[in-house]
């Protein structure tokens, strides 16, 4: 699959992309209330993993990756190919040494957002997370942990919505593979979608193996 268009890759435009597939009129979602990174971290800890819909990462799966993990039931994974010579694709699909490799669409399960997988040959989970976040992250809180028996780092942070001045919850984790780093990002439209999609994120984190 070729790289997604800007309408699908820019999270503030996900609702418009989703509505574009339907004849129903577009509706505006209310601005979510702000939440602290500590509160969102607690929410993730208490979130139960979602029922599994299958596994990606291995040869023959929807996305060939340096890791394998289970994705949530009814979510749809697709491989992403980024053309470095295409300015739009490179701008949206590359961050530092990271390149987007896979996205798992939540819309078939009734949510607006994706789990996105980025890969880098450069080692260092935190270094790659910092490259992914850039300068837009507000109060990023990093936690060292092990995922699949490997050194990993998770970050919980906020960023300003591009639709208004509200603060949106964000999170991602990075895992060292021995040959590089894999970053898994929860990309949701707003705070309500973020909370609804947390179980799918937790499923990926709990089942990931290198």
Task: Please characterize this protein's 3D structure.
The protein is of the alpha+beta class and 210 residues long. It has a single domain (6-22, 35-207), classed as Protein Transport Mog1p, Chain A, CATH 3.40.1000. Helix content is 25%, strand content 33%. The chain has six helices and ten strands; from the N terminus they run αααβββαβββαββββα. Strands 3, 4, 5, 6, 7, 8, 9 and 10 form an eight-stranded antiparallel beta sheet that branches. A two-stranded antiparallel sheet has the order 1-2. A hairpin with a 6-residue loop joins β8 (150-160) and β9 (167-176). The chain starts with 5 loop residues before the first helix and ends with a helix. Residues 3-46 have low confidence and may be disordered. Residues 1-17 form the signal peptide. InterPro entries: Lipoprotein_23 (IPR044058).
CATH superfamily: Mog1/PsbP, alpha/beta/alpha sandwich
> How many helices does DSSP assign?
6
Give the class from helix and strand content and strand pairing: alpha+beta
| Distance separating the two termini | 24 Å
Given as residue ranges, the uncertain stretches (5+ residues, pLDDT < 50) are 3-46
Signal peptide: 1-17
Organism: Actinoplanes aureus
Keywords: Signal
Pfam families: Lipoprotein_23 (PF18966)
